[in-house]
Specification:
- With 118 residues, the protein is mostly beta strands.
- The protein has a single domain, classed as Sandwich (Jelly Rolls), CATH 2.60.120.
- 8% of the residues lie in helices and 41% in strands.
- It is built from 1 helix and 8 strands; from the N terminus they run αββββββββ.
- The strands form 2 sheets. A 5-stranded antiparallel β-sheet has the order 1-2-8-3-6. It has a 3-stranded antiparallel β-sheet with strand order 5-4-7, with no helix packed on it.
- A hairpin with a 2-residue loop joins β4 and β5.
- The longest helix is centred in the N-terminal third of the chain and has 9 residues.
- It starts with 16 loop residues before the first helix and ends in an 8-residue tail after the last strand.
């Protein structure tokens, strides 16, 4: 992605997951915003110990980059592993549970505030 990932780029050609992981390891929060443009935001998320996130105001996709565990979306639960994709509509309770130490996932927020209609 380049040498300075502290600025949030609006025109990205390539994001290297290894570079993004190294950046994330230097930050106090469990996520790094790597790209924002119009109604799309891309982050790398790696909770440490537990996942304490709250519902978000936009729809989101998780693409698991590494690790495995259990994911809860409202009253639904599934096992996940690297390469899996998970979808969460806006305002729905969700969290990663019992995840491996190496777990990290891409997060893609998209669409308008409040989510998209079905």
């Amino acid at each position: 992605m380049g040498s300075d990932m502290t600025k949030i780029p609006h025109d990205v050609f390539h994001i290297d997951e290894a570079d993004a992981s190294r950046l994330l390891a230097t930050l106090p929060l469990p996520f790094a915003v790597l790209f924002e443009r119009a109604n799309v935001s891309v982050e790398l998320f790696a909770p440490r110990g537990s996942d304490t996130q709250s519902p978000h105001t936009r729809d989101e996709l998780y693409i698991v980059a590494a690790g495995s565990g259990t994911f809860r979306r409202a009253d639904q639960v599934c096992e996940f592993k690297a390469g899996d994709l998970l979808f969460v509509p806006a305002h729905v309770e969700h969290r990663f549970e019992r995840f491996s130490d190496d777990f990290r996932t891409w997060v893609i927020f998209f669409g308008p505030q409040g989510g998209t209609a079905v």
